[in-house]
Amino acid sequence: MAGLEQLDDEDHPSVPMGRAAEPLDVQPAFLRSLDAGWPRP
Q: Do the Cβ atoms of 28 and 15 come closer than 8 Å?
């Protein structure tokens, strides 16, 4: 099944930034800025 291995990749988003921003009523750029501020383990 092609593409399923991406579900285990933490750097591959399971939901596009624009889709995640819609229900929160924020801009995708705002969510990206939050993601950029968190340190990666």
A: no
Is the pTM higher than 0.90? The answer reads no
CA atoms within 13 A on the CB side of 20: 12
Rounded to whole angstroms, the maximal C-alpha distance in the chain is: 34
Sign, CA dihedral 23-29-30-36, equals: positive
In whole angstroms, give the CA distance from residue 7 to residue 15: 11
| Range 22-27 average pLDDT | 94
Give residues with Cβ within 8 angstroms of 14, minimum separation 6: 7
